[in-house]
Amino acid sequence: MASFDIDGDLVRKLADLLRETGLSEIEFAEGEKRIRVTRPTAAQTVAVQAAPVLAAAPAAAAAPAAAKPASHPGAVTSPMVGTAYLAAEPGGTPFVRPGDVVKAGQTIMIIEAMKVMNPIKAPRGGTVAEVLVSDAQPVEFGEVLLIIE
Question: Buried b vs exposed e over 64-87: b needs ≥16 C-beta within 10 Å?
Answer without folding.
Answer: eeeeebeeeebbbbbeeebbbbbe
